Amino acid sequence: MSESDMPDWEKRFRAPRVSLPDWAEDAPDRSLFVSNATGTYELYAWDRASGEQRQATNRPNGTTDGLLSPDGAWIWWFDDKDGDEFGVWRRQPFGGGADEEATPGLEPSYPSGLALGRDGRTAVVGRSTDDEGTTIYLVRAGEAPLEIYRHAESAGVGDFSHDGSLIAIEHTEHGDAMHSALRVVRPDGSTVAELDDSRGGTEELGLEVLGFAPVDGDPRLLIGHQRRGRWEPLVWDVVSGTQTDLTLDLPGDVSAEWYPDGGALLIAHSHKARSDLFRYDLATRELARIPTPPGSVSGATARPDGTVEYLWSSAAEPPVVRSTTGEVVLDPPGMKCPPSVPVSDAWVEGPGGVIHALIQKPAGAVGPLPTVFDLHGGPTWHDSDSFAAGPAAWVDHGYAVVRINYRGSTGYGRAWTDALKHRVGLIELEDVAAVRDWAVESGLADPERLVLTGGSWGGYLTLLGLGTQPASWAVGIAVVPVADYVTAYHDEMESLKAMDRTLLGGTPEEVPDRFAASSPLTYVDDVKAPVYISAGLNDPRCPIRQIDNYVNRLAARSAPHEVYRYDAGHGSLVVDERIKQLRLEMEFAERHLTPTATAPTD
């Protein structure tokens, strides 16, 4: 199909995109970014001095997990099998050459963070396996890996100090996988400092590593905390123990990273599904806004010359990497991405407080419309005023799209995010039901043509919603979902087991009633709507066996359903595959929302 004959929704997937370039700390002209230019998302090396760009990885299922060494000499990338997230780190020279195993002596595992030293030969490597829990190693070229941390609970590498003398670790040794504590150790594994905001019971608070100061001998660690009910940054001197609270007068969640000289912070501020940037001077404590267009900044970095590069988009406008100089930093050649329509905001009273929903609909359309309720994954995530090809495709086909930041979503305070415990899934769906009722009563949505869909956690909520709210939905489309919570728990990667134990208060054997109440399989016989499920055969997060259990129950009573299984993991990095999946989903919805629809065969 020629570009002129291609529909806009497909162009949005095929148009070349790039991520925010990561640059080498000691060689800032060397950068690494991700692009789909070949039709598969892969890593690319970019020499800014010469302008040369080259594709660094080339795998059938794509590659997005990579890191550039501080000296700019090496590209590290994670090599898993068929998207199962279980593998080893490899590296290759920045200018090209053969890949080599980067951590010889370490067996394949799930990755738990990576930090690279400035000496070009040292790395801190986090690993997790079902048998060992989390282990962290100091890896030096030519030497056997040195284990510096081990624990059964989940943990990860936070950062490596500028001079290589300190290592920050995020861990959940207190048993709450949703809220990390921090430990700083020396390269031999001995402890320098601890910081744990957990209080026990229902008052667990989380901490996160944002990065060591980029200055030799500087023991300041930038961290995120939730002490005032939202994410905010502070500076922790890990040697003296001094904590410098920034107390920024900004609503919503706030994150930060260092400017390269260590004298200022680049502040990323998220509020009401939009975001913006600021510069905070640590000496004067002055906060200055960095102009960005209305919408969402999904990543930003301060360059050595004081400029800031950031990846920006809105629901209507495609992503672009901009600079505060006013220039577009990376503009890939080829097909241009068509715009979509802007979002509007809806604030709906719900059982746990006011719920924020983002609405898109065809330009000039008057309701009631067939409406897609597209539920985000996570659950600790949120939908924002940013570009998304999937919702835009539904709008092109005449649907309204409603995206809901239900309880459990980030960006609306800690209490909103932490509201899920013990009634997992059911709490989120109370919010979905409230927004559904508002959409129908407002005249936006046609109650006979409502599609419930989502991916990952959103796919889980889709199946749970079809069973617990069977009269509310005409069609259900679940992408890589949890379908049978008990089997999913036993088959999933260990870090997700820990999260489920935190959310539900124990294992399936310890709290069987909670797992049963939150499992879509419990309600499968109540499902009335036709169900479409897509699943990755190698998915370690939502494994295939538990999906098969659910599908078999649908088939046993001849309930209308279709299943699409593909040879990858938790989603695909191949553009053709993404287009195929969305086309199948839209065709399924259209068949079952028309009066002449016929039941599909399994």
- Strand percentage, roughly? 35-45%
Could you tell me how far the N terminus lies from the C terminus, measured between alpha carbons in angstroms? Answer: 30 Å
Largest sheet: 8 strands, mixed
Number of strands: 36
How would you state the average pLDDT, rounded?
Answer: 95
Give the overall shape. globular
Into which percent range does the helicity of residues fall?
10-25%
Based on helices, strands and strand pairing, what is the structural class?
alpha+beta
Show unreliable segments.
596-602
Enumerate the strands of the largest sheet in spatial order, edge to edge or round the barrel. 29-30-32-31-33-34-35-36
Keywords:
8-stranded mixed β-sheet; 4-stranded antiparallel β-sheet; disordered C terminus; alpha+beta; 602 residues; single chain
Can you describe what's shown?
- It is a single chain.
- The chain is α+β, with helices and mostly antiparallel strands.
- Helices cover 17% and strands 36% of the residues.
- The strands form eight sheets. Strands 29-30-32-31-33-34-35-36 form an eight-stranded mixed sheet, sandwiched between helices.
- β13 and β14 (167-171) form a beta hairpin.
- The longest helix is centred in the last third of the chain and has 19 residues, at 575-593.
- The radius of gyration is 24 Å and the shape is globular.
- The model is unreliable at 596-602 (pLDDT under 50).
Brief description of this entry?
The chain is of the alpha+beta class.
Secondary structure layout:
Blueprint: H1 8-14, E1 22-24, E2 27-35, E3 42-47, E4 53-55, E5 66-68, E6 74-80, E7 87-93, E8 100-101, E9 110-116, E10 122-129, E11 133-140, E12 146-151, E13 155-160, E14 167-171, E15 181-185, E16 191-195, E17 207-212, E18 220-225, E19 232-237, E20 243-245, E21 253-258, E22 264-271, E23 274-281, E24 286-290, E25 296-302, E26 308-313, E27 320-323, E28 328-330, E29 344-350, E30 353-360, E31 369-375, H2 389-396, E32 400-405, H3 414-417, H4 426-441, E33 445-455, H5 457-468, E34 475-479, H6 485-491, H7 494-504, H8 512-517, E35 531-536, H9 544-556, E36 561-566, H10 575-593
Parallel strand pairs: 31-32, 31-33, 33-34, 34-35, 35-36
Antiparallel strand pairs: 1-2, 2-3, 3-4, 5-6, 6-7, 7-8, 9-10, 10-11, 11-12, 13-14, 14-15, 15-16, 17-18, 18-19, 19-20, 21-22, 22-23, 23-24, 25-26, 26-27, 27-28, 29-30, 30-32
Helix pairs in contact: 1-2
